[in-house]
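Batch job 17 of 40 flagged for manual review because the log was empty.
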Amino acid sequence: MKRVPPLFWLVILSPTRVHVICVIAALLACVFILFPEIGPACTDDMLQIYAGGTLLTAMGVSALLFFISAATHMLRLSNTRAFSQLIKWCICWGCGIALYVLLAISADVQPPDTEEDKLAIQSSDHLYAPKEQLNGPASLVIPIETTAQSADKVIDAPNLTALESEHAELFQNYIEKSPRWSGQEGDDTYYSKPGHLVMVPPTTSGAPGLVHVCFRTLVEGDRLPQGFSVVQPGGNFPDSADESKFVSDLAVDLGRNHFLLLAWRGSAHRETAYKAINAAIAAIDARMQPLRDTPTEEMVERLLNGRESYPGSTPEFRLSEPIAQEGAYQAELYANPGEPGIILVYIKELKSSRTLRLMSCPARYSNNDQELFRHDFPGSMPDWIRSSVAGDVSNLFPANTPIFAIRRGPQHQYFGVAFEVYFKPTDVRKQQRHLIRRCYKVQAYEPPVAESPAADSPKT
C-alpha cells in the first residue's frame, strides 16, 4: 500500500495548524510594515514589498484551505464539521487581528496624507517631512556609530575629565551658555522634556533605541535624580541580577561637581544599550577636544557659534523635529544676502495662508556670492524678539532653548505649513526681497506639564 506523505495529513486533516502558521507569518510581515526602521535603510522599499507579498500569500493560503476543507465536509454531508472549520478560521484570524491592533498602537504610525493635507497655495508646493539633519552647534539630534564600541566597561572620557579637573570655570561657562544644554538644571525627568540632546545609533535589526544626554551640575547638598546609577569613566557598568529589566540610567562622574547623565530608551538587550551609551560618551567627549587643547574664552565662543559659512550659492532651508520631542522644531537657513539687514521667517498655514508665527534674526553676509551663512531659528534670535512674538505658543519654552512650537494642540494633529523667508535690508531705500519658500507637514505641540508663568524667561 502506497504511503501517504505527511504534508497531505497536515493540509487535509489539520487545517487549523496551517491557519495558525499563516497568522504567524502575516504578523511577522506586519512587523516589518509597521516598524520599517528595524531593517537596513538601503532595503526599505524591497522589505516593504516582500512583507506585503508575504501578508497577502498567508491570507490567501489560509482562506483557500478553509474553503477547500469546508467544501469537502459539506459534500460529505458533515455540516457540523464544516461549521466548526469556519469557527476555527475566524478564531485564528480574530486573534491575529487583535495582535495586529496592539502592534499598530505600539508603532504609533503617522496617518497617511489626506486630500486636505495635500492642498497647497501654489501648484509647485511639495510637503516635506521635518526630519532633516542640522549642522549647527545647537542641533538636538546627533547620529552616533556603535560598531567600534565595547560593552564591557564604561568608556574613558579624557577630555571631559581633564576640563573638569583643570578648567572647571571654562567648562561651566560652556554648559551654561550652550542652547544644547539649556533648561535642564534641576529637571529630574529631562529625557521626557523638550530641549535635551538625543544621540541616535544606527538601527539594522531589532527594536530601535535612543540615548538621552544631559549635564548636571551638583553643589553641596544636591542629589542626583532618582534611579540614576553613578559610574566612573573607565569603570564597570552597574550589575543587574535581572537581565530582563531595562538598562539603568547612568550618571558619569567627571570628578568634581559635574555629571554626564545618560538615559537609554529602547531594547533591553544590554550589549546594544551599553555600546550605544559608550558611543554617546565618546561623541560628547570628542566635541570637547578643541576646548581641552585651547582652554580659552575665545574657544568657548567658537564652540557656541559652530561653523557659520559653507560653500554654495542657492539658499537652503532645513527643518528638524527632534526625536522624542514631537511638535517641537528647530530650523536652519543657509543664505547670503550680501548686505546688512534682517532675516524674516513667516510660518503660514497652507489652508488659509494665515501667518502662524514670525521669527527674525540679524543676517550674516559677505561679498562672496559663493558663500552661504548658517542662521539658526530660534537659536540666533535675540531674547527680546523671541519674547515679543505674538500668539499662544510664544511662552512654551525657555528663551534659551533651541526649539519652537508652531501650534498648541494634541500630538499627531498634523497640518501643512509654508516657511517663507525674506530679507529686509538695513537701507530703508531698498525693498524687502524673497529668498526661499519650503513647505512641511508638521504637528501641534502638547506640553507635557502645565507651563510656568515665567516659562519664557531664561533659567539661571
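Reviewer: the log was empty due to a logging misconfiguration, but the result itself is present. DSSP finds ten helices and 16 strands in the chain. Unflagging and moving on to job 18.
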